[in-house]
Design brief:
With 883 residues, this protein is α/β, with parallel strands linked by helices. Helix content is 43%, strand content 17%. A hairpin with a 2-residue loop joins β34 and β35 (822-830).
Amino acid sequence: MSDSKNLNCKAVLGPTNTGKTFYAVERMLSYKSGIIGVPLRLLAREIYDKIVEIRGTDFCALNTGEEKIIGEKAKYWVCTTEAMPLDKSYEFLAVDEIQLCADDERGHIFTERLIKARGTLETVFLGSLVMKKIIRKIIPEAQFLNKERFSSLSYIGKKNISKIGPRSAIVDFSVDRVYELAEQLRFAKGGAAVVLGALSPKTRNAQVELYQSGDVDHLVATDAIGMGLNLNINNVFFASNRKFDGHKIRELNLLELAQIAGRAGRHLQDGFFGETGKLKEIDKKVVYNIENNIFPTQEKIKWRNSCLDYSSAAALIQSLDKNINSSHLEKVKDVTDVATLKFLYKSSSFDFQTFSDHDVQLLWKVCQIPDFRKVSNQDHADIIVKLFSFIRDTGTIPDSWFAKEIKRLDDNQGDIDTLSKRLSFIRTWCFVANRGDWIEDSKGWRNATREVEDNLSESLHVKLTQRFVDLRRSVLVKRGMTQKENYQNFIVKNDGSIYIEDHLFGVLEGFNFILSGSETFEDKKKLMQGFRPFLQQHLKVLVEKFYSAPDREIDLSVNGEFSWNGGRVGVLEKGNNVYSPMVKAINFDELDIKQQKKIEKKLTIFLQEKTGTLIENLLRLKASNSFGGLARGFTHKYLENLGVIPKAQVLEEFKTIDSELKLKFKEFGVRFGYKVIYDGLGLKPESTKLRLALFNAYNKGELKMFIPPPGLITIPYNKNISKAQYMVAGFFIAGDKVIRVDMLERLFFMLKKFDQHDWFEPNASMLSIMGVGLKDFSDLMKSLGFESKTEKILLDSDEKNMKVTDDTRDEEISLTYEEEGEKLRVFIRKEKRLRNEKEKNKKTFPLNKKKRLRVNEKSKSIINRKSIDPDSPFASLKMLLKN
């Protein structure tokens, strides 16, 4: 490499938060073309997005191996260090985090860039001051620019995770531990964003946005945040100081600790670092060195021979194993690509003796596919063999096979581990799709693999957020609600739902708060600790609002429960009698005794006003002393049944009630019907609802509560509903049906005009009153003590041939129903037994005393005789004798 290019080299060195990366990007954009290599795919995407905003997509390019976006006029390239295309010429070239030359896994790549990569006009290496001596040895002509940290970095000691303040990052190096810490933060602080090096850019950006936007105030990450990711972090806490470096688990060195701790404090904002969890306190000397940027000089960096021999597989391995005699370079240990090559050389079925130079070179390129899957050496080797065989034998990877592999991963269902595994698998195919010489329609496959990765990334972000973030708890913690009780951002909507900064916390039903979400008991308990101060303040206002609420806003159901504002607030319990139930408020956890008593007082007033208005007649009768004897007994039973009682149940008492007493009872709204004695006003819907509530409060143990269906007159009988409850509701039981009492009485009034001995046809009015069809009406009348018969009428075809006369015209409007293809008319009359009983009752219980005496004297012998059936021959004989 010519000394002239070295003359343009510059090393910009210093600790974190010195603006080194910003400086390099700014320098790059000042030239006509440039390229910058960074250690992380996530950081590359972050820088690419920034320069796109400045220069536009057409002039920018991104290449991370797995992701490649190249503008039509690309002049400015952002790449991972491994993916930097050095076969092109750039005016400006930069490599970030150059201290990674000492990394066991990737150091040889950075060393290769340090030794060979140059821009035509300017080359910049960014990193730690520990690299100054090494850079001076490799590039004696290099200029050095030392950068000072914008803010201080201080040690704040060990803190319990529940005591960690906002804008903090917790770092661990195990994915399982990262998840565990995120769970703890969800419980303690409302949640945390999760940043792992293996996340796709889309998932990482979505998680970082959670943190940057302030939705959560905490971040849990691996050392991915230590490589230049620019986040607004005030504090960094180490939960571990041990990591797996690709070969073994070891402790972080001083520079690695400082690199991660240095993420705290951005620009002029001071930063702090410490420990949490089980990690012991950091050694005081280490703390001092980190605070004062004192690090040991890097004496050696990793190196691997890049002048490879492709004459045979053995020669390639031998050239890769070549050592170097240098004071500042040392051969890197076998990493994934070399290890895979050696594994195949020893264990595969390939006949390496037949390999050409081209075959060996192809095999080496395929071996350099990163092992994103990390299942096993054998698994990775199997993929390498498959891809190598395809390309060697046919020139490209078959589209059908590649499509099948992608389709297998195109499934966004599953838990976090499942989605993460699919993402690691699709990363392999993203890398392969970006090799235009390995697969046809490389651009199409890049889009296909990117779409699958994006879908999986989105699903993974959702799963991570669902598992590790409770935005509601986060809002409470962030706003300091538990301390300040600042209610400005709390909104209670008309439906009772409560929001805090657009996050639904739950719903108020009456005075009962139902927390939304499917959290565990402990999660709910923790959330309620922060939410309770507001809730209690709101409930205090709500109780006052309830106390002054109009009666129309309160509802009393048939089961004796009071409701208001969408929820239960009280209940009726059994009292001394059916008219005096006890009123109890529902036991609400967030209300004190004084508030509970105030609710009970309001409900008691409400009930008194309701009963005084809706069952006024019953209350007046209950308070009256106007009746004595059997009439008083009737009154007691009538009131006990809440103003609706079958006549048969009080038949003896009814016999003693003369016209004068009936007039007195009428003053109290009592109606003496054919089947039922009832209070007409009490059968109105609201009155019925109240009477049922009183009945059910007094008579506990009902199998089923009866709620009268609005608009229906006749409904099926339910054996799980007691007869007493049906009667209180104003329904009379008739066989397998129950009928509204008031409508039944209207029907019997209509039937008065028909002679009890004659058959008559039901008319439309009767059916309308009962709310049934002709067939059901016929069955219903049987249940009510009537006889029913049917007559077949002519079919339509016969009617056409029949001459219409005045006698047949009436029959044309008769009601009919069809059964088995025949049209039937229905005829009704009193059942014989009931007709006889009615005759007997007329003679035994006349309307006045004189008539009764006359019947008893003149017809004594007749009374005990059997009544003559009007359809028998004896009835005709009787008529002849009479005439």
